[in-house]
């Protein structure tokens, strides 16, 4: 069985291309992203993407979740997955930006969990993933709109 966790969809008052640049500006994640504290990647298809996340139990510190880039389709779609990193679990994350015109777009993200351990992972961590994804959507909106308003 596959479990899909989806963030809220936010409407962003900035062009899709601008939001994409904010989304993949990984060195600046510590400035605005509450759920993905740091990202290490080349953005090349097949290469790893190391996601530094806060501990799910709220304790101090972070952990690294390694995934692999599968789709980098600027400015609309970013996909990465766990490949065989976690035995018994496969997770595929998609992030979507949809243009609504020259100065507006939407953003949302999903994570599809499958495999032998998917039920247990979603039962224990699903609410944390959902809250994290929602926080990223709202933070991306705030960051992209702020930078768009400040442009020269």
UniProtKB/TrEMBL annotation:
Pfam families: Polyketide_cyc2 (PF10604). Coiled coil: none annotated. It comes from the Bacteria. Gene3D superfamilies: 3.30.530.20. This is Polyketide cyclase. The lineage of its organism: Bacteria, Bacillati, Actinomycetota, Actinomycetes, Pseudonocardiales.
């Amino acid at each position: 069985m596959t479990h899909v966790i989806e963030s809220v969809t936010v409407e962003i008052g900035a062009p899709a291309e601008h939001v994409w640049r904010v989304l993949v500006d990984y060195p600046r994640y510590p400035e605005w992203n509450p759920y993905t504290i740091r990202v290490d990647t080349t953005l090349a298809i097949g290469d790893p993407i190391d996601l530094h996340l806060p501990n799910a139990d709220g304790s101090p510190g972070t952990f690294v979740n390694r995934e692999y880039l599968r789709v980098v389709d600027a400015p609309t779609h970013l996909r990465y997955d766990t490949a065989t990193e976690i035995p018994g679990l496969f997770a595929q994350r998609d992030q979507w930006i949809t243009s609504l015109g020259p100065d507006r777009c939407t953003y949302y993200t999903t994570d599809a969990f499958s495999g032998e351990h998917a039920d247990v992972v979603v039962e224990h961590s699903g609410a944390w993933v959902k809250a994290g994804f929602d926080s990223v959507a709202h933070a991306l909106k705030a960051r992209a709109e702020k930078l768009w308003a400040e442009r020269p």
